[in-house]
Amino acid sequence: MRFDRSVTTTCGYCGVGCRLEAHAADGRVATIAPALDGPANHGHTCLKGRFAHQFSRKRDRLTAPLIRGEDGALRSAPWDEAIALITSELTRIRDSRGPDAIAGLASSRATNEDCYVMQRLMRAAIGTHNIDNCSRVCHSPTSWALRQSLGLSGATGGFDDIEAADAAIIIGANPTEAHPVVGARIKQATLRGLKLVTIDPRRIELADYGVLHLSPRPGTNAAVMLGLAHVIARDGLTDELFLKQRTKGWAALEDLLADYTPGEVSRITGIRAADLERSAHIYAEATNASILWGLGVTEHRYGSEVVRLICNIALMCGKVGRPGSALLPLRGQNNVQGSSDMGALPDTFTGYQSVGDEDVAQRFEARWGVTMKRTGGLKIPEMFDAAVAGELKAMYIFGEDVAQTDPNTTHVIAALESLEFLVCQDIFENETTKYADVILPASSFLEKQGTFTNAERRIQRVEAAIEPPGEARTDFDILTTISKALGHDMGFASPAEVMDEVAQLTPDWAGVSHDRVARGGLQWPVAADGTDSPLLYAERFELPGGRARLAALPYKPPGSEASDEYPMILVTGRRLEHYNAGTMTRRTGNLELLASDWLELHPDDAERLWIGDGDLVSVRSASGRIELEARVTVRIEPGHVFTAFHFPEIRTNLLIGSSADVNTACPEYKVVAVDVRPVAEEASRTPAITGARRD
Amino acid sequence: MTLTIDIDGTETEVAPGTTVLEAVRAIGGYVPTLCFDERLDAFGACRVCMVGIEGLTVPVAACTTLCRDGMRVDTRDETALRVAAATVELVLSELPGPPAQHTELAVVANALGVDGGELRWPGEQHEHVHDERHPYLALQHELCISCGRCVRACDEVQGAFALTATGRGFGSNIAAGLDEGFRESACVSCGACADTCPTDAITELTLLALDSEEASGAL
Fold first, then answer.
1. Is A25 close to B210, i.e. CB distance below 8 A?
2. Cβ pair A442, A473 in contact under 8 A
3. Which of A127, A132, A369, B159 could form a disulfide with A187 if both were Cys (CB 3.0 to 4.6 A apart)?
4. What is the Cα–Cα distance from A623 to A288, expressed in whole angstroms?
5. What is the predicted pLDDT for the residue at A450?
6. In the A/B pair of chains, how many CB contacts fall below 8 A?
7. Which of the residues B104, B150, B152, B190 would you substitute to probe the A interface, choosing the one with the greatest number of A C-beta atoms within 10 Å?
8. Cβ contact (<8 Å) for A576 and B206?
9. Architecture of B130-218 per CATH?
10. Are A47 and B204 in contact (CB < 8 Å)?
C-alpha cells in the first residue's frame, strides 16, 4: 500500500467546501485528491486544496505551549503550566474587572464544533458575550442583509444554480482566483452558453468569458444596483405578481428608483448608461438568473446596504427560490458561514438566535447551568477600541492573525499592547502572537474532526488524515480543557457530542448529527427528521407574514475618497496561489509559484507617475505607508490600484483606515485613498508601523 | 419515457441519452476503460471499453454508444475482450516498463489478463523524458499513452487550456503550453491533469518521492 491512512474530508481553505480524499504516509499528508462525489467540487479542486498541505509538517509549526517570561522572551512550557497560567490570569481579571473585561475571537478557519465550544467558553465559563469571529471583517454585511431582506443568513441556493442559470451577474468577486473551483464551474458554464455580466473595478479573468463587463468606481456599487433596478422597473421587467404576493416595500422602493436614471448612475459610477441598461435586460429577461457576490460588495462603508439592494433586484424579478435563480454570496473562508451559525458572534447564539430573546436565553442558560446578560457584547473593532481605552484587559484569540489581517494595523497593535493578558491559539507564530503572553499549539484542518459549513449552507464532515505534531492538540481538546479548568465542564467526549448539543438548542439545526451529515452533507435548515434545504424560499420567506422586505436605500459615497493628497483609490483582494494572511500557503510550494505581492497600476497612471513595470513604489494612505513592486496592467482602470494582503513583509493592511460598514462594522478594505509614487533609490522593504505620516 | 435494455442477462431501465457504459456501471457491472473519466465528455478514443451488442457483427465502445430500447449488451463478448486486450497490449508495448500497480492502466491490464509477460508485438519503446520544473507537478513523457484525459480535464474541468496533444503516431505525447513546462504555460496548477492521468505520465513530485522510498525500502 502506498498510504497508511486515507480519509474523505473537507478543504480548509476557501468557502467553496471542496470534498477531498486525503492520503497520509508516515504521519504526513502524501497527497490530496478531489472526491468525485463532492457536491460543490464535482471531482475538482484547486492548487490550494490539492497541493498546499506541506505547511502541516513545517519545522516552525508550534509543537509545545509557549509562555512569555519576564524578559519578554518565549519559552516552551508544559500544558499544565500554560493552562494554569491562563486560568489564573483570566480568573484574576474577571474577578477584579468583571467578565466583560475579557473578549474572545473564534476562527472562521476552525470547525463548527470548535467555534461552538469557543463561544460557550466565553459565555458560560467566562460570562461575557464578547465573542466574535473573522466573518466580522468579510461577510458580516451579507449575513445581516440577508436576514433583513429574506430571513435567513445564507445563500438562497447552491453552486448547482450556476449550471442551472441562463444568465448570471457577478459583482465584487474574482472567483477564478479567490474561489477557484467555483470560478472553473462558472467559466465552464459560460462556455456552454451562460450569459455572464461581471461588475468589478478590475477586469477579472471571468470578464473575458462574459457578455459584458462593468467597471464602476470603487465604493459606488449601491448606485450600480439602484441603476439596474431603475431600468428593470422603467422597462416593465418586474415580476408584478411576485412583488405583490411575496414582498413588502415596493412603493417606497419604486419612488426611490426614479432618481437613479442610467445617466445619473453613469455620472456616479463611471460605467456607460447603455451597458447598465443591457445588463439589466440580460438579468431580467433570462428565464433563470443568479447573482453572485464577494467581499468587493461587503467590505465597504455601505456594504450591508448594497447586499440589500442586490436582494431587491432578485425580488423585483421574482428570481429567488427556484433552481438557477439564486442569490449566492461567495463566502471567504472555509467556515465563515459556520463560525457565525455557531453563535461566535456578540449578539447571537447558534442559528442567529438573539441573546436578548428571553426564551432563547433561558434555553441556553438551562442547558449550560449559568446566567447570562440579555445585551450583546463587543464586535472585533470595538474590542480593539476598548483595549486602547483600558476597558478590555484580556483577549483569547483563536486562529486569527489580527495584526496582519485586520484594518488599521497600528491601532490593532496598540490594542494588543494595551492588554494585560493575551492568549493566542494557533498553528504558527504570526504577527499577533508577538504580543501574546501564552501561545497554545493547535491543529490544522488536516488534524482534527468535526464539520465545516460552506457557502451553500452545506454542513460537511472534516476528518483527521494525520495527528497534530508534537505536543499540539486539537482545538476541541484545548478549549474544553480550559473551560473545565475555569470551572465550567462542558462534558463533551467528542466533537460529535458538540453537534448533538447544537441540534438540541438550535431549531434550524434540529436534525443535524455527524452520522446524518455523512458523505453528502446537509444544507441547513435541517428539520428534526433530517430533511435538509438545498433551496430556500420556494414558497415563503422566513420573515413575518412570509414576505421578503425590499429596501429603499439611497446611494451614499464611500468613507474614503480620492483627494489632492491621496489621488488614487486602492482596492485589495486575493491571489490564486495564496490565502489570506498566507500563514499556510507561504509555507508550501505555492510560494515558489508566487513569491510576493505587487501593485497593479494602469499604463496611463504609470506613465504619469514615472513608474515602470517592476519598479519599487511607495503607497501612502492616511493610515500608513508600504513599499512594493509595481506591475503595469490594463486589467485595472486609470486612477485605481490593486494589491493583495498575503505577505507580512508588505503588510498591506497598514494602509486601511478605520472606516467600516454602518450596520456590521465590517472594515472598508476595498476603498482606500492613496498616493502612489516611485521609490527612487534602493529602499528598505520594512513596513513603517509607527512612521505613518501625521498631518 | 425509459428504455429497457439487457446487460449480461439482467434487465434494466435507463433514461434516453444514457450510454451503455453508464448503464453497465449503474447496475454495478464492469467494463474496462482508459480514456474515460466521468468528469469529462466521452471521447471514444482508446477502444478498451468494447462490448458486444446483439445484432451487430463487431464490438462497439461502451462509452460513446447510446442505449436503445430492447438492446442486449454482452460485456463478456469474446471478440470485444480480445480487441480490448490487444489494444492494451499494444499500449504497454510502447512503455519502457510495466505500469506501476497503483495506476489505472495496471488495473485495466490486470482485468483484461494482459500480465505484461512476453509481448506479442515488441517494438520501439519511449525514452525517459522528465520535466520536474513545477513545484508540485511532474511530467514523465515516456508514460504518456495519448488518451487525451489531461488535455480534456484542463479544458473541460478547469478551463485553463494549458495542455496540448502533440506529435503523431508513436511520437504522440502531451505538452504544457508550447512545451515550455507548466509554469510558463497558462497552467493554474489545479492538478486536474495529474488526477485524471491513468499512467503517471503526469503525477505529483511528492508521490514520486514516496514511490522511490518505497522501492528502495523493498530492496
1. yes
2. yes
3. B159
4. 45
5. 98
6. 65
7. B190
8. no
9. 2-Layer Sandwich (3.30)
10. no
